[in-house]
Write a structure and sequence with these properties.
single chain; six-stranded mixed β-sheet; 3 helices; alpha/beta; Transcription Regulator spoIIAA
Length: 117
């Protein structure tokens, strides 16, 4: 089975089931929450596999607009229902938006493991 992915002109979101990791790359600047539905479905597919650990790797995500941050926040909130899954978010210090925005995800899901390097 091919790894599920969502691609646009400037971005790629790919789920690798073997490592239970979703990779985000590029600039995601979709206009409305409706345009984020394919990414939400991919994230839900990853979460519904009930892995022990689900990793969101955003190290190569240069930009995420407010609609995208909202989509990510809603997904993180939804992970409260997945009691058996540890959510890990990997970010990078070189990407300015990630420091503050990813820190806020910890407030939404206290058990979230945030690694910014």
């Amino acid at each position: 089975m091919a790894n599920p992915e969502v691609k646009g002109d400037d971005y790629q979101v790919q789920y690798e089931p073997a490592s239970s990791t979703v990779y985000f790359k590029g600039d995601i600047t979709l206009g409305s929450p409706k345009e984020y539905v394919p990414i939400v479905k991919l994230l839900d597919q990853a979460a519904n596999a009930d892995p022990d650990t689900l990793t969101l790797n955003v190290k190569e995500l240069a930009f995420l607009n407010s609609s995208g941050i909202s989509m990510l926040s809603k997904f993180v909130l939804g992970m409260k229902k997945k009691k058996g899954t540890q959510l890990v978010v990997l970010g990078g210090k070189k990407v300015p938006w990630q420091g503050k925005s990813l820190k806020n995800l910890e407030r939404l899901l206290p058990g979230l493991k945030l690694v910014v390097e």
